[in-house]
Amino acid sequence: MTARLVQLEKHPLVIDLLTKCDFPLAGTKISCAVSGGPDSMALLILATASGCEVTAIHVDHGLRTDSENEFQIVEKLATELGAQFNSRTIKIEQGTNLEARARTARYEVMPHDVMTGHTADDQAETVLINLLRGAGLSGLAGMQRNQRHPILALRRTQTHQLCRELKIEVVEDPTNTNPKFQRNRIRHELIPLMDAISQRDVAAILDRQADLFREDSMLLDDLAKKIDVTDAKLLAAAPIALARRAIRQWLTEIYPPDAATVERVLDVARGTTLACEIGSNREVRRSQQRLQIFTN
After folding, report:
1. Is 141:217 a contact under the CB 8 Å cutoff?
2. Residue 271: which region, alpha, beta or left (left: phi > 0; alpha: psi -120 to 50)?
3. Would you tell me how many other CB atoms lie within 10 Å of the CB of residue 261?
4. Residue 231 DSSP one-character state
């Protein structure tokens, strides 16, 4: 154990924040995605202070001219804390859906169970983004509270405070304030406006609502799993909310369907039509009261 880690483990704020986190047992080997920003650096600090054997993974997207130097900031802290460090470089071309493409590429080069530094504020933003996209209950449930998101109960103010009090050098990403990205406008414009209108801390409310939505969604998922989705008559007679969810669970084995696809499959189950396209060169057909997926 390094001297720096011993010092951090005794810090009152570290001790307090760890009580709100969801890390596995001490000694467990874990990977943390660490960009160098305050949230991910707080994740690295708290993960090592929890006693886990941590590997910090930094991914350089090559989107900024000085980004290749940012890994050194992460590597320095990882070394001080006795964590392993791994740096990956990927190439993302400028263009549409840059945020989504960068996120997808980032996760493709990291372990599937990598931990992220998402906070309750990120959860609130995610709920609003999904709401604006027309997502259903599952989308409004936001991110799962599990060991993939161990600091999800923390607020962004707390992760920033942790880095300030411990005098941790962090990376300031200018894209986090760029208004061309939807999440940034929600973070810097929409949520402050909602705070002002409601005179309340909206992020905290949305975070709690996500938990309620998730509990409801999990219950509906369990009920939907009891429906034989290939039985057209049974599916057509089921409560509409469960029927839609059963279809979504079925088709997600191929790819997550949109709402229009789910409705087309329901029409097939009801006998309105004999078949419908579901994408990926596949279609659902009804024959002798059974639904089947065929490849075209």
Report:
1. yes
2. left
3. 19
4. B
Query: Are 62 and 30 found together in one domain?
Result: yes
Contact 23, 47 (CB under 8 A): yes
Q: What does the pLDDT read at residue 62?
A: 65
140 and 49: one domain? no
Residues 240 and 254 in one domain: yes
> Does residue 138 share a domain with residue 77?
no
5 contacts: CB under 8 Å, gap ≥ 6? 48, 49, 80, 81, 82
Indicate if the pLDDT at residue 158 is higher than 70. Answer: yes
Q: How many domains does the chain have?
A: 3
Same domain, 123 and 159: no
pLDDT in tens, 173-223: 887 888 988 999 999 999 999 999 999 999 999 999 999 999 999 999 999
Using only C-alpha atoms, the chain has a radius of gyration, in whole angstroms, of: 23
CA 42, CA 46: separation in Å to the nearest integer? 6
**Burial class of residue 250 in the structure, from the number of CB atoms within 10 Å of its CB (0-12 exposed, 13-18 middle, 19+ buried):** buried
Q: How far apart are CA 278 and CA 272, in angstroms?
A: 16
Beta-sheet pairing, 282-287 with 290-295: antiparallel
Average pLDDT taken over every residue of the chain: 92
Domain coverage including residue 27:
3-115+150-171
DSSP state of 285: E
Q: What backbone torsions phi and psi does residue 59 show, to the nearest 5 degrees? A: -115, 125
192 and 234 housed in the same domain = no
